[in-house]
Amino acid sequence: MHQAQATPRTTLFICATCGMVKDPATGQKPTNPESEKLATQTAALLAGTAISVQLTKCLSMCNQPIAWALSGPGRHATSFSPATCAEDLATTAHLYLSTPLGEKMPKKELPKDTKPTLISRIPPLDM
Length: 127
Prior knowledge:
The chain has helices spanning about 35-45, 85-100; strands spanning about 10-15, 50-55, 70, 75-80, 120. By secondary structure, it is of the alpha+beta class. The protein has a single domain, classed as Glutaredoxin (3-Layer(aba) Sandwich), CATH 3.40.30. Strands 2-1-3-4-5 form a five-stranded mixed β-sheet, with helices on one face.
């Protein structure tokens, strides 16, 4: 019997600690409530799609909170900062998923407020 393979997931990462100051007692940055809110709103907009939303500890773009990134098998990992709104993140994630494997997401098709926040594109490692 042939087993069905799971569809590879695309992940939208949102920095959980962007814009937060380290707690002197623990040396750790607390989670930014705005990051949690953005993740919840974006996840609701992407419900039922092949795109998951995940908070992550740090995306090393601390000077421009809130940083976020997209990653998926066969796709350029793409990072942005600062985040605009959940609708722009969801629209960008749909564009990312619709871009042919191995190709860069077309910057000209990004939401207007997202275009200037594009930080980097890293070629797929699994091509």
